[in-house]
Amino acid sequence: MARSTGIERKEQLLREIIGRVAASEANGRVIIGFSGGVDSSLLLWETVQTLGPDRVVAVTATSPTSIPEEEYAARIFAHGLNVEHLVIPTDECEDPSFVRNPPDRCYVCKSIRYRSLQSLARRLGCAALFDGTQSDDDPADRPGMRALEELGIGTPLADAGLTKEEIREILREEGFHDLAEKQAQPCLATRIAAGAPITVEALEIVQRGESVLRTYGLGLIRLRIHGSLGRVVTDEAGISTILQRKEIRQEIVSRLTALGLTSVTLDLRPYGEKP
To answer: Greatest CA span in the chain, whole angstroms?
Structure first.
């Protein structure tokens, strides 16, 4: 199915923005902060279509807050586009401001990560840095957007006015059907109750616990940590599965408490449902 006229115009504007920024660079190259999610994947693909793979570097930041499956997906996608893909460690988990887990934790994290990317860009002789923020992203819900503005990081998708659904539509039309339907996967730090310290140990429990939960065929899942209490959050189908199958409940409790949790609860409100 062909793109709508509105999406075509936005896509053309996106490529013009990318081309204009690249043309202003001495070596004509751009660096993309690439998480492997829906938005940054489309941005990477569009940038490659505009400039060619040799003028694009995809960079994935990794730390204890990262989801291993997302890093793997990022590697596979970048490899398929034949672009240079760098995975660099970042140290937000060693920063006291981040560890305190304040309301603007994402701002602190984005600042640390993109400063690392800027240092890398300088070493590569390239000042053009892009992030996958799109026009539906609300600064009130995403403190990290303030860091992008302060550091001068480009946001071509947002500048072109592309929405989340339009991004998914382009991916579908280009044959990336699984990616187009991919659920959001925010970092593991989002599973720790606000104000509670973000420790490497807690992040490891979340990462290993969510891997356990996925083995039961649950779709969208989050393991939220409140001290030593683990709260399983999932969609309606997942709630039904857990409630209806005693053996699964028992196994989940056994396997999660073995990770260090003292008790495990199930949130009866489906993921994303407002109170």
So the answer is: 63
**Degrees (nearest 5) of the Cα angle 185, 191, 197?**
135
Q: Do residues 99 and 50 share a domain? A: yes
- Number of neighbours of residue 174 by Cβ within 10 angstroms: 15
Question: 47 with 76: CB under 8 angstroms?
Answer: no
pTM for this predicted structure? 0.92
Distance (Å, whole) CA 155 – CA 146 = 12
Q: How many folded domains does the chain comprise?
A: 2
Cβ atoms of residues 257 and 264 within 8 Å: yes
Task: Specify the amino acid at residue 261.
Answer: L
Give the separation between CA 47 and CA 30, rounded to whole angstroms.
Answer: 9
Asked if 65 and 187 touch (Cβ cutoff 8 Å), the reply is yes
121 and 255 belong to one structural domain: no
pLDDT tens profile 69-79: 999 999 999 99
Q: Facing residues of 77 across strands?
A: none
Q: State residue 2's pLDDT score.
A: 65
Query: Which residues lie below 8 Å from residue 122, measured CB to CB, with a gap of 6+?
Result: none
Which domain does 207 fall in, by range? 199-266
Q: What CATH number corresponds to the domain at position 11?
A: 3.40.50.620
Tokens standing for 269? Answer: 């409100």
